[in-house]
Amino acid sequence: MVSKEDFVTIKNLKAKNPDMSLREIGQLLHASHNTIKAALAKEEAPKYQRVEKPKLHLEPFAEVIFEMVNIKRYRGSRILNELISKGYKGGKTAFYNFLRNLKLDLHQKHFKPYETSAGEQAQFDWSPYTVLIDGKVIQIIAYSYINSFSRYQVFEVSLSQNQASVFEALENSIIESGGVASRIQTDNAKVFVDNASRDNLQYNKYYLNFASHYSFSPSRSLPSRPWSKGKIEKPFQYLETHFIAGGEFTDFLDLQYRLKDFQKHVNQRLHSTTKAVPNEMFLLEQPHLIQLPTNRYIGVKEEVRKVSSDCLISYNGSRYSVPYLFASKQVWIRISKGHLLQVYSQANKKIAEHPVSLKKGIVIIKEEHYRGNRNQTPNFERLRAEFIEQFPSTDIFLEKLKAQKRINPNYHLCRILEISKMYKKEDFYEAINCCLKYNVFSANFISGYLEKNHKHIFKIKEPIIRIATSEPVTRDLSEYRVYEN
């Protein structure tokens, strides 16, 4: 085959010397008569076409390469090293050509974009990041919820990505949107899907309950095919480059507040795909969203705790106070955003909230949990003086009570004083001596001992009846007169 340079030379020689024979041109270029004739008959220079060799060396590794490209997200050089360690005998050029064609094939054959109508779909996902909080490197989880028609985006952040935290972030996003789309698209994470098989899809039962509570249909992207969402947009790219990168925060609350300010900015800017402002488009989408139920969803592996007699519950090696009304009762707890311990009553009312301690063995108390109906908690010395006045010579008992119940002796002494009003004084002294004998100092012990061994006494005060005296009442007889027509 004639090279491109020879082809141009042949054309020029013939154009400048019309009388020059084919043989003479061939002698100059050391080419045959037929080669010169064929070159002059063509209008364009010949193009080099690489003959594709059979990919015999790469075919056995096709599935491995696909996984490393799309799931593990390895770079080409690392994939090549992995293949060589697995026995690949081919060259670099063949490998990179195969890899290039594979990536083109993925994007060109499997992605068909489409737009959704108002209220039809929302997409939910999350991504881990490390940021500086109070000068420490902390891993956070950023959650993204996008209403697909308007591209109105809601961000949530947590220190956890367990099922309860994922559901809380999704629920907060739905509530902030003021309604829920008919369908929510997610990936195949275990919190959503028990079996991601295309032929035997099984959703997680808790997620189905959650979807039922908010009346939306769950849908998922096919495994290793994020484009099956119908859109390939990067919900975290702008967050990464304009908020996460270089961000430092004083505490977790500072991170939350600033993230919400960033969310406002995101929804006010012109969207690169729709060429519209999400806030403005969301005004059109919101009327099409499904109305929210009255109550939030409750039901993700609630952890039940029994409150101790000193109004404390245990969580992760530390103890936290709850209102005194719930002493010795069962409550359930929920960890919000991975850093707040929320305590709920059996009637599903939040009764306490504490920041989760990063250290174990810590006791966290809020004084108002021991206040009852009084404006101020009586201090121990005040209660002590009252107790000594009623029960002299009990100093040792009080000292041991204070030492054993060092967290909240006020609560116990206050209850003991109330119990003492229900029994005879000598019976109460007997209970105190029993406490000293067994070295147990608590209101529950005294109450149990007295209930078992002695009867209540009830001091019923006679009612005071006051009869008011007044001047005699006289009436005019005309008031009783019967009027006739």
C-alpha termini separation: 140 Å
Helix run count? 16
Low-confidence stretches: 107-112, 373-377, 458-485
Total count of strands: 15
Summed over residues and divided by their number, the pLDDT gives a mean of 78
Fraction in helix: 25-40%
Helix and strand layout, with pairings?
Blueprint: H1 4-16, H2 22-29, H3 33-41, H4 62-70, H5 76-85, H6 92-110, E1 121-133, E2 136-147, E3 152-158, H7 163-177, E4 183-186, E5 193-195, E6 202-203, H8 205-214, E7 217-220, H9 237-244, E8 248-249, H10 252-268, H11 278-285, E9 303-306, E10 312-315, E11 318-321, E12 330-336, E13 340-344, E14 350-355, E15 363-364, H12 380-390, H13 395-404, H14 409-420, H15 425-438, H16 443-453
Helix pairs in contact: 2-3, 12-14, 13-14, 15-16
